[in-house]
Amino acid sequence: MTDYKNIRGKKVKFLTTDLSSEQAEGQIFYSDTNNDFKSIVASAAWSSGGSLINAHQETSAAGTQTAGLCFAGSPPTNGIVSTEEYNGSGWAVGGDLNTARRAAATFSASTQTASLIFGGSIAPNPTVSNATEEYNGTSWTSVNNLPAVKYVHAGAGIQTAALAFGGYNGTAAVATTEEYDGTNWTAGNAMSTARYSLGSAGLQTAALAFGGTPPVTAATEEYDGTNWTAGGAMNTARRYAAGCGIQTSALAFGAGPSAVVKTEQYNGTSWTEIADMAVAQKNHGGAGTTTAGLSCGGESPSNTRRVTQEFNISTSTVTGAAWASGGNTSHRTVGRLNFGTQTAAFAGGGVYVPNPGYTDESKTEEYNGSSWTAGTDMPADKGRGTGHGTLTAGLVCGGTAGNTNTNASFEYDGTNWTAGGNMNVARRYMGGFGIQTAAVVCGGFPSPTNNGTETEEYNGSAWTAVTATPTKSQTFQASGGTLTAGIYFGGEGGPGAKTSESFEYDGTNWTAGGDLSEATARNSGGGTLQTATMAVGGLTTSAGPGSAVTQLYDGTSWRTSASMAVARSQVGAFTGTTSSGLINNGINASDAAIVTTEEFTGETTAVNSAKTIDFD
Question: Do 241 and 211 touch, CB atoms closer than 8 A?
Fold first, then answer.
Protein backbone atom coordinates (compact mmCIF):
# COMPACT_ATOMS: atom_id res chain seq x y z
CA MET A 1 0.00 0.00 0.00
CA THR A 2 1.25 3.51 -0.83
CA ASP A 3 1.72 5.61 2.29
CA TYR A 4 1.66 9.40 2.79
CA LYS A 5 5.44 9.74 2.58
CA ASN A 6 5.49 8.09 -0.86
CA ILE A 7 2.73 10.42 -2.09
CA ARG A 8 4.04 13.71 -0.65
CA GLY A 9 7.71 12.91 -0.15
CA LYS A 10 7.31 13.98 3.50
CA LYS A 11 6.53 12.15 6.73
CA VAL A 12 3.64 13.05 9.01
CA LYS A 13 5.44 15.13 11.63
CA PHE A 14 4.79 15.22 15.36
CA LEU A 15 4.90 18.91 16.39
CA THR A 16 4.22 21.05 19.44
CA THR A 17 3.72 24.22 17.33
CA ASP A 18 1.95 24.69 13.99
CA LEU A 19 3.89 24.90 10.73
CA SER A 20 4.12 28.46 9.40
CA SER A 21 5.86 28.42 6.01
CA GLU A 22 4.51 28.33 2.45
CA GLN A 23 6.48 25.11 1.89
CA ALA A 24 4.13 23.45 4.38
CA GLU A 25 1.18 23.45 1.95
CA GLY A 26 -0.44 20.02 1.99
CA GLN A 27 1.89 18.76 4.73
CA ILE A 28 -0.06 16.80 7.32
CA PHE A 29 1.30 17.02 10.85
CA TYR A 30 0.12 15.98 14.28
CA SER A 31 -0.32 18.82 16.78
CA ASP A 32 0.61 17.64 20.26
CA THR A 33 -0.88 20.88 21.62
CA ASN A 34 -4.32 20.36 20.06
CA ASN A 35 -4.24 16.56 19.83
CA ASP A 36 -5.32 16.78 16.17
CA PHE A 37 -3.97 16.19 12.69
CA LYS A 38 -3.54 19.49 10.82
CA SER A 39 -2.40 20.90 7.48
CA ILE A 40 -1.72 24.28 5.81
CA VAL A 41 -4.21 24.72 2.96
CA ALA A 42 -4.49 27.31 0.20
CA SER A 43 -7.29 29.90 0.21
CA ALA A 44 -8.70 32.26 -2.43
CA ALA A 45 -8.91 36.00 -1.74
CA TRP A 46 -8.76 39.46 -3.29
CA SER A 47 -6.50 42.18 -1.87
CA SER A 48 -5.75 45.77 -2.81
CA GLY A 49 -2.81 46.74 -5.00
CA GLY A 50 -1.16 50.09 -5.74
CA SER A 51 -3.55 52.71 -7.13
CA LEU A 52 -3.38 53.60 -10.81
CA ILE A 53 -1.69 56.90 -11.68
CA ASN A 54 -4.49 57.94 -14.04
CA ALA A 55 -8.23 57.36 -13.92
CA HIS A 56 -9.14 54.44 -16.23
CA GLN A 57 -12.55 52.96 -17.01
CA GLU A 58 -13.58 51.16 -20.19
CA THR A 59 -9.94 50.15 -20.04
CA SER A 60 -7.76 47.39 -21.47
CA ALA A 61 -5.29 45.20 -19.59
CA ALA A 62 -2.65 42.57 -20.30
CA GLY A 63 0.18 40.61 -18.74
CA THR A 64 0.49 39.03 -15.33
CA GLN A 65 -0.06 40.06 -11.73
CA THR A 66 3.64 40.89 -11.34
CA ALA A 67 4.18 42.32 -14.84
CA GLY A 68 0.89 43.86 -15.92
CA LEU A 69 -0.38 46.59 -18.21
CA CYS A 70 -3.38 48.92 -18.01
CA PHE A 71 -3.96 51.12 -21.07
CA ALA A 72 -6.52 53.29 -22.88
CA GLY A 73 -9.99 53.96 -21.44
CA SER A 74 -11.94 56.99 -20.32
CA PRO A 75 -12.66 59.70 -19.17
CA PRO A 76 -12.83 61.66 -21.39
CA THR A 77 -15.32 59.92 -23.67
CA ASN A 78 -12.92 60.36 -26.61
CA GLY A 79 -10.49 58.02 -24.83
CA ILE A 80 -7.01 58.37 -23.37
CA VAL A 81 -3.51 57.41 -24.51
CA SER A 82 -2.11 56.49 -21.10
CA THR A 83 -0.31 53.20 -20.49
CA GLU A 84 0.73 52.08 -17.01
CA GLU A 85 2.99 49.18 -16.04
CA TYR A 86 2.55 47.08 -12.87
CA ASN A 87 5.28 45.18 -11.01
CA GLY A 88 3.11 43.37 -8.48
CA SER A 89 3.15 46.30 -6.09
CA GLY A 90 2.45 49.58 -7.91
CA TRP A 91 2.13 51.33 -11.27
CA ALA A 92 4.67 53.32 -13.29
CA VAL A 93 4.26 55.34 -16.49
CA GLY A 94 4.58 53.42 -19.78
CA GLY A 95 4.59 54.60 -23.38
CA ASP A 96 1.52 56.44 -24.70
CA LEU A 97 -0.73 54.99 -27.38
CA ASN A 98 -0.70 56.67 -30.79
CA THR A 99 -4.51 56.82 -30.85
CA ALA A 100 -6.54 57.75 -27.78
CA ARG A 101 -9.35 55.25 -27.33
CA ARG A 102 -11.72 53.56 -24.93
CA ALA A 103 -13.67 50.30 -24.82
CA ALA A 104 -11.06 48.32 -26.74
CA ALA A 105 -10.54 44.65 -25.93
CA THR A 106 -8.93 43.48 -22.72
CA PHE A 107 -6.14 41.22 -23.90
CA SER A 108 -4.93 39.39 -20.81
CA ALA A 109 -2.87 36.61 -22.43
CA SER A 110 -0.31 38.97 -23.99
CA THR A 111 2.65 40.20 -21.96
CA GLN A 112 3.86 43.50 -20.56
CA THR A 113 6.57 43.66 -23.24
CA ALA A 114 4.54 42.26 -26.17
CA SER A 115 0.94 43.40 -26.11
CA LEU A 116 -1.71 44.54 -28.58
CA ILE A 117 -4.72 46.85 -28.76
CA PHE A 118 -7.33 46.85 -31.50
CA GLY A 119 -10.57 48.69 -32.17
CA GLY A 120 -12.32 50.88 -29.63
CA SER A 121 -14.10 54.23 -29.63
CA ILE A 122 -12.09 57.30 -30.64
CA ALA A 123 -12.54 61.02 -31.25
CA PRO A 124 -14.82 62.55 -32.24
CA ASN A 125 -17.09 60.60 -29.94
CA PRO A 126 -18.73 58.31 -30.89
CA THR A 127 -16.47 57.09 -33.70
CA VAL A 128 -15.82 53.34 -33.87
CA SER A 129 -12.27 52.38 -34.85
CA ASN A 130 -10.40 49.44 -36.36
CA ALA A 131 -6.94 50.82 -35.50
CA THR A 132 -4.43 48.29 -34.18
CA GLU A 133 -1.20 48.97 -32.23
CA GLU A 134 1.54 46.75 -30.79
CA TYR A 135 3.49 47.44 -27.58
CA ASN A 136 7.12 46.37 -27.09
CA GLY A 137 7.45 47.28 -23.43
CA THR A 138 8.44 50.85 -24.22
CA SER A 139 6.36 52.24 -27.08
CA TRP A 140 3.31 51.56 -29.23
CA THR A 141 3.52 51.09 -33.03
CA SER A 142 0.59 51.29 -35.44
CA VAL A 143 0.16 48.09 -37.49
CA ASN A 144 -2.46 46.64 -39.86
CA ASN A 145 -6.03 47.45 -38.95
CA LEU A 146 -8.85 45.09 -38.07
CA PRO A 147 -11.00 44.18 -41.12
CA ALA A 148 -13.97 46.01 -39.57
CA VAL A 149 -14.61 48.61 -36.88
CA LYS A 150 -15.78 47.48 -33.44
CA TYR A 151 -15.65 48.40 -29.77
CA VAL A 152 -16.75 46.89 -26.42
CA HIS A 153 -15.47 43.65 -27.94
CA ALA A 154 -13.24 40.92 -26.49
CA GLY A 155 -9.77 39.60 -27.19
CA ALA A 156 -7.59 36.58 -26.49
CA GLY A 157 -4.20 35.16 -27.40
CA ILE A 158 -0.75 36.69 -27.67
CA GLN A 159 0.70 39.49 -29.81
CA THR A 160 1.61 37.17 -32.68
CA ALA A 161 -1.48 34.96 -32.43
CA ALA A 162 -4.40 37.10 -31.32
CA LEU A 163 -8.17 36.83 -31.53
CA ALA A 164 -10.86 39.54 -31.66
CA PHE A 165 -14.52 38.58 -31.23
CA GLY A 166 -17.96 40.04 -30.63
CA GLY A 167 -18.47 43.74 -30.03
CA TYR A 168 -20.54 46.62 -31.36
CA ASN A 169 -19.95 48.24 -34.74
CA GLY A 170 -21.76 51.48 -33.98
CA THR A 171 -25.10 50.17 -35.16
CA ALA A 172 -25.57 46.67 -33.79
CA ALA A 173 -24.00 43.84 -31.83
CA VAL A 174 -21.77 41.61 -33.96
CA ALA A 175 -20.69 37.96 -33.77
CA THR A 176 -17.64 38.33 -36.02
CA THR A 177 -14.27 36.80 -35.19
CA GLU A 178 -10.89 37.97 -36.47
CA GLU A 179 -7.50 36.25 -36.14
CA TYR A 180 -4.13 38.08 -36.09
CA ASP A 181 -0.82 36.40 -36.96
CA GLY A 182 1.44 39.24 -35.90
CA THR A 183 1.10 40.97 -39.28
CA ASN A 184 -2.32 40.45 -40.85
CA TRP A 185 -5.91 39.98 -39.76
CA THR A 186 -8.13 37.29 -41.30
CA ALA A 187 -11.77 36.43 -40.74
CA GLY A 188 -12.61 33.46 -38.52
CA ASN A 189 -15.93 31.73 -37.96
CA ALA A 190 -18.57 33.79 -36.18
CA MET A 191 -19.73 33.30 -32.62
CA SER A 192 -23.06 31.55 -32.02
CA THR A 193 -24.60 34.75 -30.65
CA ALA A 194 -23.83 38.39 -31.43
CA ARG A 195 -22.95 40.23 -28.24
CA TYR A 196 -20.84 43.06 -26.81
CA SER A 197 -19.48 44.10 -23.41
CA LEU A 198 -18.37 40.49 -22.92
CA GLY A 199 -15.51 39.00 -20.91
CA SER A 200 -12.75 36.80 -22.29
CA ALA A 201 -9.79 34.55 -21.55
CA GLY A 202 -7.52 32.08 -23.31
CA LEU A 203 -5.55 31.73 -26.53
CA GLN A 204 -6.27 32.08 -30.24
CA THR A 205 -6.85 28.34 -30.58
CA ALA A 206 -8.52 27.88 -27.18
CA ALA A 207 -10.48 31.02 -26.30
CA LEU A 208 -13.34 31.66 -23.92
CA ALA A 209 -16.17 34.23 -24.19
CA PHE A 210 -18.61 34.82 -21.35
CA GLY A 211 -21.39 37.20 -20.45
CA GLY A 212 -22.26 40.29 -22.47
CA THR A 213 -25.40 41.86 -23.88
CA PRO A 214 -28.07 42.14 -25.35
CA PRO A 215 -29.72 40.87 -23.30
CA VAL A 216 -27.45 40.54 -20.28
CA THR A 217 -26.41 36.89 -20.37
CA ALA A 218 -24.62 34.16 -18.44
CA ALA A 219 -23.78 32.27 -21.64
CA THR A 220 -20.27 30.94 -22.32
CA GLU A 221 -18.75 30.01 -25.67
CA GLU A 222 -15.49 28.17 -26.39
CA TYR A 223 -13.33 28.59 -29.51
CA ASP A 224 -11.06 25.80 -30.76
CA GLY A 225 -9.27 27.82 -33.43
CA THR A 226 -12.02 27.12 -35.97
CA ASN A 227 -15.47 27.00 -34.39
CA TRP A 228 -17.37 28.34 -31.40
CA THR A 229 -19.38 25.91 -29.22
CA ALA A 230 -21.45 26.37 -26.09
CA GLY A 231 -19.75 26.02 -22.72
CA GLY A 232 -21.17 25.95 -19.20
CA ALA A 233 -23.23 29.00 -18.21
CA MET A 234 -22.08 31.30 -15.43
CA ASN A 235 -24.02 31.45 -12.18
CA THR A 236 -24.53 35.21 -12.58
CA ALA A 237 -25.53 36.89 -15.85
CA ARG A 238 -23.23 39.85 -16.39
CA ARG A 239 -21.79 42.41 -18.79
CA TYR A 240 -18.77 44.73 -18.47
CA ALA A 241 -16.96 41.88 -16.69
CA ALA A 242 -13.24 41.20 -16.85
CA GLY A 243 -11.49 37.86 -17.06
CA CYS A 244 -8.14 36.11 -17.12
CA GLY A 245 -6.60 32.68 -17.45
CA ILE A 246 -6.98 29.97 -20.09
CA GLN A 247 -9.98 28.19 -21.56
CA THR A 248 -9.87 25.32 -19.05
CA SER A 249 -8.95 27.46 -16.05
CA ALA A 250 -10.42 30.96 -16.18
CA LEU A 251 -11.74 33.68 -13.91
CA ALA A 252 -14.66 36.07 -14.47
CA PHE A 253 -14.91 38.98 -12.05
CA GLY A 254 -16.91 42.15 -11.62
CA ALA A 255 -19.80 43.13 -13.92
CA GLY A 256 -22.61 45.54 -14.66
CA PRO A 257 -24.97 47.18 -15.25
CA SER A 258 -24.40 47.79 -11.52
CA ALA A 259 -20.86 47.03 -10.36
CA VAL A 260 -20.69 43.71 -8.51
CA VAL A 261 -18.09 41.78 -6.56
CA LYS A 262 -18.97 38.28 -7.79
CA THR A 263 -16.05 36.15 -8.98
CA GLU A 264 -16.42 32.82 -10.77
CA GLN A 265 -13.87 30.17 -11.76
CA TYR A 266 -14.20 28.00 -14.89
CA ASN A 267 -12.70 24.52 -15.13
CA GLY A 268 -13.40 23.92 -18.82
CA THR A 269 -16.90 22.62 -18.12
CA SER A 270 -18.63 24.62 -15.42
CA TRP A 271 -18.38 27.82 -13.38
CA THR A 272 -18.06 27.93 -9.57
CA GLU A 273 -18.42 30.99 -7.39
CA ILE A 274 -15.24 31.80 -5.52
CA ALA A 275 -13.98 34.69 -3.35
CA ASP A 276 -15.73 38.04 -3.89
CA MET A 277 -13.78 41.11 -4.98
CA ALA A 278 -13.05 43.59 -2.19
CA VAL A 279 -14.42 46.46 -4.31
CA ALA A 280 -17.21 46.04 -6.87
CA GLN A 281 -16.09 46.89 -10.42
CA LYS A 282 -17.31 47.05 -13.99
CA ASN A 283 -15.68 48.28 -17.20
CA HIS A 284 -12.33 47.30 -15.73
CA GLY A 285 -9.30 45.47 -17.08
CA GLY A 286 -8.32 41.91 -16.24
CA ALA A 287 -5.01 40.06 -16.52
CA GLY A 288 -3.05 37.19 -15.01
CA THR A 289 -4.04 33.63 -14.16
CA THR A 290 -6.66 31.87 -12.05
CA THR A 291 -4.24 31.65 -9.13
CA ALA A 292 -2.73 35.14 -9.55
CA GLY A 293 -5.18 37.54 -11.19
CA LEU A 294 -5.21 41.31 -11.61
CA SER A 295 -8.05 43.84 -11.91
CA CYS A 296 -7.35 47.47 -12.76
CA GLY A 297 -9.43 50.62 -13.14
CA GLY A 298 -13.13 50.53 -13.92
CA GLU A 299 -16.23 51.97 -12.35
CA SER A 300 -16.98 51.26 -8.73
CA PRO A 301 -19.35 52.72 -6.12
CA SER A 302 -16.51 55.04 -5.05
CA ASN A 303 -15.94 55.88 -8.75
CA THR A 304 -12.23 56.58 -8.30
CA ARG A 305 -11.31 54.67 -11.50
CA ARG A 306 -7.86 54.07 -9.97
CA VAL A 307 -8.61 50.88 -8.01
CA THR A 308 -6.26 47.90 -8.38
CA GLN A 309 -7.07 44.49 -6.93
CA GLU A 310 -5.10 41.25 -6.86
CA PHE A 311 -6.57 37.74 -6.72
CA ASN A 312 -4.55 34.91 -5.20
CA ILE A 313 -5.04 31.26 -4.40
CA SER A 314 -2.24 30.71 -1.95
CA THR A 315 -1.22 29.30 1.41
CA SER A 316 -0.57 32.90 2.42
CA THR A 317 -2.97 35.79 2.98
CA VAL A 318 -1.94 39.07 1.37
CA THR A 319 -3.09 42.31 2.98
CA GLY A 320 -2.59 45.22 0.62
CA ALA A 321 -0.96 48.49 1.61
CA ALA A 322 -3.52 50.91 3.02
CA TRP A 323 -4.10 54.25 4.70
CA ALA A 324 -6.34 54.42 7.79
CA SER A 325 -7.70 57.36 9.77
CA GLY A 326 -5.71 58.40 12.84
CA GLY A 327 -6.45 60.92 15.56
CA ASN A 328 -7.02 64.53 14.54
CA THR A 329 -4.55 67.24 15.50
CA SER A 330 -5.70 70.14 17.67
CA HIS A 331 -5.92 72.80 14.96
CA ARG A 332 -5.39 73.63 11.30
CA THR A 333 -1.78 74.08 10.25
CA VAL A 334 0.20 73.64 7.06
CA GLY A 335 3.94 73.27 6.50
CA ARG A 336 4.51 71.51 9.83
CA LEU A 337 7.88 70.16 10.96
CA ASN A 338 7.57 66.41 11.55
CA PHE A 339 9.81 63.58 12.74
CA GLY A 340 9.63 60.26 14.61
CA THR A 341 7.66 57.07 13.92
CA GLN A 342 4.01 56.17 13.45
CA THR A 343 3.58 55.38 17.14
CA ALA A 344 5.90 58.08 18.49
CA ALA A 345 5.61 61.09 16.20
CA PHE A 346 6.28 64.80 16.56
CA ALA A 347 4.48 67.59 14.69
CA GLY A 348 5.36 71.14 15.56
CA GLY A 349 5.11 74.70 14.39
CA GLY A 350 3.77 75.25 10.92
CA VAL A 351 1.58 77.98 9.58
CA TYR A 352 -1.59 78.27 11.63
CA VAL A 353 -4.61 78.94 9.43
CA PRO A 354 -7.46 80.67 11.19
CA ASN A 355 -10.06 82.12 8.87
CA PRO A 356 -8.72 84.35 7.41
CA GLY A 357 -4.99 84.68 8.02
CA TYR A 358 -1.70 82.76 8.25
CA THR A 359 0.48 82.87 11.38
CA ASP A 360 3.67 80.93 12.18
CA GLU A 361 3.48 79.24 15.57
CA SER A 362 5.61 77.48 18.17
CA LYS A 363 3.06 74.94 19.43
CA THR A 364 3.89 71.23 19.21
CA GLU A 365 2.04 67.93 19.45
CA GLU A 366 3.10 64.32 20.01
CA TYR A 367 1.38 61.19 18.66
CA ASN A 368 1.24 57.84 20.45
CA GLY A 369 -0.24 55.79 17.62
CA SER A 370 -3.83 56.84 18.23
CA SER A 371 -4.07 60.41 19.49
CA TRP A 372 -2.20 63.72 19.65
CA THR A 373 -1.35 65.51 22.89
CA ALA A 374 0.24 68.90 23.45
CA GLY A 375 4.04 68.95 23.72
CA THR A 376 6.52 71.59 24.86
CA ASP A 377 6.44 74.77 22.77
CA MET A 378 9.48 75.46 20.58
CA PRO A 379 11.67 78.41 21.64
CA ALA A 380 10.33 80.48 18.76
CA ASP A 381 7.69 80.42 16.04
CA LYS A 382 8.66 78.26 13.10
CA GLY A 383 6.91 76.93 9.99
CA ARG A 384 7.75 75.54 6.54
CA GLY A 385 11.12 74.16 7.67
CA THR A 386 12.34 70.58 8.12
CA GLY A 387 12.31 68.02 10.92
CA HIS A 388 14.78 65.17 11.59
CA GLY A 389 15.27 62.32 14.04
CA THR A 390 13.12 60.67 16.70
CA LEU A 391 10.68 61.83 19.35
CA THR A 392 13.43 61.79 22.00
CA ALA A 393 16.24 63.08 19.74
CA GLY A 394 14.78 65.48 17.23
CA LEU A 395 15.88 68.49 15.21
CA VAL A 396 13.93 71.29 13.51
CA CYS A 397 15.64 73.85 11.32
CA GLY A 398 15.07 76.73 8.95
CA GLY A 399 11.63 77.76 7.77
CA THR A 400 9.88 80.97 8.63
CA ALA A 401 9.29 83.04 11.74
CA GLY A 402 6.67 85.71 11.17
CA ASN A 403 6.87 84.95 7.43
CA THR A 404 10.58 85.84 7.44
CA ASN A 405 13.14 83.17 6.51
CA THR A 406 15.15 81.91 9.45
CA ASN A 407 18.37 79.91 9.85
CA ALA A 408 17.66 78.86 13.45
CA SER A 409 17.83 75.20 14.57
CA PHE A 410 16.38 73.69 17.74
CA GLU A 411 17.07 70.27 19.27
CA TYR A 412 14.47 68.26 21.22
CA ASP A 413 15.08 65.51 23.80
CA GLY A 414 11.45 64.47 24.20
CA THR A 415 10.78 67.09 26.88
CA ASN A 416 12.94 70.18 26.45
CA TRP A 417 14.29 72.30 23.60
CA THR A 418 17.82 73.67 23.26
CA ALA A 419 19.31 75.90 20.60
CA GLY A 420 21.30 74.15 17.88
CA GLY A 421 23.75 75.64 15.39
CA ASN A 422 22.44 78.16 12.87
CA MET A 423 22.35 77.20 9.19
CA ASN A 424 24.55 79.20 6.82
CA VAL A 425 21.55 80.12 4.64
CA ALA A 426 18.18 81.15 6.05
CA ARG A 427 15.48 79.41 4.00
CA ARG A 428 12.03 77.82 3.84
CA TYR A 429 10.37 75.19 1.64
CA MET A 430 13.51 73.05 1.59
CA GLY A 431 14.07 69.31 1.76
CA GLY A 432 15.79 67.51 4.60
CA PHE A 433 16.72 64.03 5.77
CA GLY A 434 18.81 62.28 8.42
CA ILE A 435 18.87 62.31 12.22
CA GLN A 436 19.58 64.87 14.93
CA THR A 437 23.36 64.38 14.82
CA ALA A 438 23.71 63.71 11.07
CA ALA A 439 21.22 65.76 9.05
CA VAL A 440 21.06 67.28 5.57
CA VAL A 441 19.00 70.19 4.22
CA CYS A 442 18.87 71.13 0.53
CA GLY A 443 17.25 73.62 -1.81
CA GLY A 444 14.57 75.95 -0.55
CA PHE A 445 13.47 79.52 -0.92
CA PRO A 446 16.30 81.83 0.20
CA SER A 447 15.03 84.99 -1.51
CA PRO A 448 11.98 86.18 -3.46
CA THR A 449 13.76 85.76 -6.80
CA ASN A 450 16.00 82.74 -6.33
CA ASN A 451 15.21 79.07 -5.73
CA GLY A 452 17.96 77.38 -3.81
CA THR A 453 20.61 74.80 -4.61
CA GLU A 454 22.48 75.17 -1.32
CA THR A 455 23.06 71.98 0.65
CA GLU A 456 24.23 71.82 4.28
CA GLU A 457 25.13 69.01 6.68
CA TYR A 458 24.65 69.06 10.47
CA ASN A 459 26.92 67.10 12.84
CA GLY A 460 24.93 67.71 16.04
CA SER A 461 26.37 71.15 16.72
CA ALA A 462 27.22 72.99 13.49
CA TRP A 463 26.15 73.25 9.85
CA THR A 464 28.63 72.94 6.97
CA ALA A 465 28.05 73.87 3.33
CA VAL A 466 28.56 70.90 0.99
CA THR A 467 27.88 70.02 -2.66
CA ALA A 468 24.97 72.01 -4.10
CA THR A 469 21.97 70.24 -5.63
CA PRO A 470 22.04 69.81 -9.44
CA THR A 471 18.94 71.94 -10.01
CA LYS A 472 17.10 74.71 -8.20
CA SER A 473 14.14 73.57 -6.17
CA GLN A 474 11.70 74.73 -3.52
CA THR A 475 8.18 74.19 -2.12
CA PHE A 476 8.71 70.60 -1.09
CA GLN A 477 9.17 68.73 2.16
CA ALA A 478 9.83 65.61 0.17
CA SER A 479 13.03 63.84 1.05
CA GLY A 480 14.23 60.78 2.89
CA GLY A 481 17.13 58.58 3.88
CA THR A 482 20.33 59.26 5.77
CA LEU A 483 23.24 61.68 5.52
CA THR A 484 25.19 59.24 3.33
CA ALA A 485 22.20 57.81 1.40
CA GLY A 486 19.49 60.42 0.94
CA ILE A 487 17.03 61.55 -1.71
CA TYR A 488 14.84 64.56 -2.55
CA PHE A 489 12.09 64.73 -5.17
CA GLY A 490 9.51 66.99 -6.76
CA GLY A 491 9.09 70.66 -5.91
CA GLU A 492 9.37 73.79 -8.05
CA GLY A 493 12.33 74.74 -10.20
CA GLY A 494 10.82 78.22 -10.45
CA PRO A 495 7.51 79.89 -9.53
CA GLY A 496 4.81 77.41 -10.54
CA ALA A 497 7.27 75.19 -12.47
CA LYS A 498 6.60 71.72 -11.04
CA THR A 499 9.17 68.96 -11.47
CA SER A 500 9.12 65.15 -11.41
CA GLU A 501 12.87 64.83 -10.87
CA SER A 502 14.55 63.13 -7.94
CA PHE A 503 18.19 63.25 -6.87
CA GLU A 504 20.17 60.90 -4.65
CA TYR A 505 22.91 61.95 -2.22
CA ASP A 506 25.80 59.68 -1.17
CA GLY A 507 27.26 61.97 1.47
CA THR A 508 29.38 63.82 -1.09
CA ASN A 509 27.69 64.01 -4.50
CA TRP A 510 24.22 64.21 -6.02
CA THR A 511 23.11 61.94 -8.89
CA ALA A 512 19.83 61.70 -10.78
CA GLY A 513 17.30 59.15 -9.54
CA GLY A 514 14.05 57.91 -11.09
CA ASP A 515 11.31 60.38 -12.01
CA LEU A 516 7.98 60.64 -10.20
CA SER A 517 4.95 59.61 -12.26
CA GLU A 518 3.84 63.24 -12.52
CA ALA A 519 5.49 66.62 -11.93
CA THR A 520 4.61 67.67 -8.36
CA ALA A 521 5.10 70.68 -6.08
CA ARG A 522 4.21 71.43 -2.46
CA ASN A 523 4.54 67.70 -1.96
CA SER A 524 5.59 65.67 1.03
CA GLY A 525 7.38 62.41 1.64
CA GLY A 526 10.01 60.68 3.67
CA GLY A 527 11.39 57.47 5.03
CA THR A 528 14.52 56.32 6.79
CA LEU A 529 16.04 54.69 3.70
CA GLN A 530 16.99 56.06 0.30
CA THR A 531 15.82 52.79 -1.24
CA ALA A 532 12.49 52.79 0.60
CA THR A 533 11.08 56.30 0.44
CA MET A 534 7.49 57.50 0.04
CA ALA A 535 6.17 60.48 -1.98
CA VAL A 536 2.86 61.83 -0.73
CA GLY A 537 0.29 64.21 -2.23
CA GLY A 538 1.15 67.65 -3.53
CA LEU A 539 0.04 69.87 -6.39
CA THR A 540 0.00 68.31 -9.85
CA THR A 541 -1.45 69.28 -13.21
CA SER A 542 -4.27 66.76 -12.75
CA ALA A 543 -4.82 67.58 -9.06
CA GLY A 544 -4.83 71.34 -8.51
CA PRO A 545 -5.21 71.95 -4.77
CA GLY A 546 -3.89 68.52 -3.80
CA SER A 547 -3.39 64.90 -4.79
CA ALA A 548 -4.15 61.65 -2.92
CA VAL A 549 -1.55 59.69 -4.90
CA THR A 550 1.32 58.07 -3.02
CA GLN A 551 4.40 56.44 -4.53
CA LEU A 552 7.20 54.25 -3.22
CA TYR A 553 10.83 54.43 -4.36
CA ASP A 554 12.94 51.27 -4.52
CA GLY A 555 16.26 52.89 -5.31
CA THR A 556 15.62 52.88 -9.06
CA SER A 557 12.04 53.81 -9.87
CA TRP A 558 8.82 55.13 -8.35
CA ARG A 559 5.66 53.00 -8.20
CA THR A 560 2.22 53.88 -6.91
CA SER A 561 0.94 52.52 -3.63
CA ALA A 562 -2.43 52.89 -1.90
CA SER A 563 -3.93 56.37 -2.27
CA MET A 564 -4.70 58.50 0.76
CA ALA A 565 -8.34 58.94 1.77
CA VAL A 566 -7.91 62.74 1.66
CA ALA A 567 -6.12 64.50 -1.19
CA ARG A 568 -3.77 67.10 0.25
CA SER A 569 -0.75 69.35 -0.27
CA GLN A 570 1.55 71.51 1.90
CA VAL A 571 1.84 68.65 4.36
CA GLY A 572 4.71 68.26 6.78
CA ALA A 573 7.16 65.45 6.04
CA PHE A 574 5.90 61.86 5.98
CA THR A 575 6.90 60.36 9.33
CA GLY A 576 8.09 56.79 9.81
CA THR A 577 8.90 54.11 7.25
CA THR A 578 7.27 52.71 4.12
CA SER A 579 5.94 49.83 6.18
CA SER A 580 4.53 52.00 8.99
CA GLY A 581 4.16 55.76 8.61
CA LEU A 582 2.07 58.84 9.23
CA ILE A 583 0.89 62.04 7.53
CA ASN A 584 -1.08 64.89 9.07
CA ASN A 585 -2.71 68.24 8.30
CA GLY A 586 -2.12 70.21 5.09
CA ILE A 587 -4.56 71.67 2.57
CA ASN A 588 -7.26 69.48 1.00
CA ALA A 589 -8.74 69.42 -2.50
CA SER A 590 -11.19 72.17 -1.50
CA ASP A 591 -8.21 74.44 -0.71
CA ALA A 592 -9.01 74.36 3.02
CA ALA A 593 -6.58 73.65 5.87
CA ILE A 594 -7.40 70.38 7.65
CA VAL A 595 -6.59 68.59 10.92
CA THR A 596 -6.88 64.97 9.77
CA THR A 597 -4.21 62.32 10.25
CA GLU A 598 -3.72 59.20 8.14
CA GLU A 599 -1.62 56.16 9.05
CA PHE A 600 0.08 54.05 6.39
CA THR A 601 0.69 50.31 6.64
CA GLY A 602 2.65 48.57 3.90
CA GLU A 603 1.64 45.32 2.23
CA THR A 604 2.00 42.25 4.42
CA THR A 605 1.91 38.51 3.74
CA ALA A 606 1.11 35.92 6.39
CA VAL A 607 0.93 32.14 6.12
CA ASN A 608 -2.61 30.80 6.59
CA SER A 609 -3.48 29.22 9.90
CA ALA A 610 -3.28 25.43 10.03
CA LYS A 611 -6.61 23.66 9.54
CA THR A 612 -7.71 20.67 11.57
CA ILE A 613 -8.24 17.52 9.48
CA ASP A 614 -11.40 15.57 10.19
CA PHE A 615 -10.96 11.90 9.23
CA ASP A 616 -14.57 10.96 10.08
Answer: yes
